[in-house]
Amino acid sequence: MQRITESPRPDWQAQVEALGLTFHTADDHPYWDESAHYRFSSREIDQLEQATAELQRISIAAAERAIRDNWRDRLAISPQAWQEIIHSWDRDDLSLYGRFDLMWDGSGQPKMLEYNADTPTSLLEASVVQWQWLQQTRPHADQFNSIHEKLLTAWPSWPQQQIHFCAQRGSEEDWRTLLYLIDTCRQSGKTTLDLAVEDIGWNAGMQSFVDQQDHPMDLLFKLYPWEWMWLEDFSCHLPGRCQRFIEPVWKMLWSNKAFLVLLWEMFEGHPNLLRTSFKPDGMRDHVEKPYFSREGTNVRIVQNGSLLETTDGPWHAQPKVYQELHSDVSFSGNHPVIGSWIIGGEPAGIGIREDTSLITSNTSRFIPHWF
Hints:
This protein is an alpha+beta fold. Helix content is 27%, strand content 25%.
């Protein structure tokens, strides 16, 4: 694994905007950054794919254990949501996608930091944008990237011909991710309708969630976290209707950082896991994470018992987990995190985010890769 610098394409802004990546620059700094790229060997790509498949396997096993042994309290999930999780798991409600965040420099084994299993973004960048970069800059090379093809294959798994899509109003990144998913859904032969989360209604006569035209939503892809949905006023209507959503409600198990503790308890010493617990337990070097924090907020890194780095955010009052601090992965002062995608239950490719900070945030740069 190497980090290599080079000159960006002269018209890179126009190129990525044509694919829908309109948020390529933030505060005059590139978010999409092709002034560098990561080069892997084919052996390293095989290792990443194998690690991703293995993490998916043990995550399924741990979810089954969590339900069987009733780990609801340890995951801080409400009784109402827990019952829906059980029903959803028993129905085997389908999942479209997820993203493991891994730390690795090409030596040893990739280590799992967390599983963004409910509402992962950076999908557009990882799929078509970095593929275009590859085709234009080194067309004879390859890339660990079958995301687009696997999305097209996955959508027909749902029997509904029409699917609604929603995201929060005002979030450009979320909406660009949503529009890309809508495009893949249409390419698979389905029809789609989109609306803002804030415009979803409830029709008491039909006993159904409805769109602005009062049409019932038989299946809704929501780029909106389940833990937020259960706090909304309309959550009283969720029981008995959770099978109408993508991602399924059982994804609350995996997107919860307390799940990292349960994984470690079941698979202690696994080469792709970092020790994680509900207390520091003597770990002088650790990362403190709230159960449901997002985009690197409210994270604290402690080294040799002293605070090394921290971020602010709205999740400070949540319960925390404590994950062993991985040895520093740095390329010329840049710290990459490899987002390894699962589509339809299978490894599908990677996207890399990097930062000069040890904590990856929503402004961390996206760097393309090849092998």
